[in-house]
Amino acid sequence: MSNLVLGVYDLGGGGYRQEFRDAVTSADGDLLVLFDVRLDEAWRGFGLGPVLVSEAIWTLADGCSAVIAADPLWESVGFRRRVDPLGHLMDPATEEARDLRNERRKDLDALADAYRESLRR
To answer: What is the model's pTM?
Structure first.
């Protein structure tokens, strides 16, 4: 995890690295680090991972300049590979990030509808 943070934060200079500042809409907020995500095996394969990660991020990211992740699997949530040392970064202020959050919410609605339909049978 420290490598993720050191990729965007300059301990010696006491602030965000210029590469990070250039990659985000505003570097005036906090940094949210998505380090590890686990979903019980019984719940895998339904598309819940991206939905739950998206909701967790948007719940926690208020006031954050960006979210960084160790795992490259979250492109459907809005993470994009940036030049080193930034790694996988999501800028919650972008329209793309907001659109992807709305798509994941639609995915959750579709899952809920499918579940309700299965109960009617």
So the answer is: 0.83
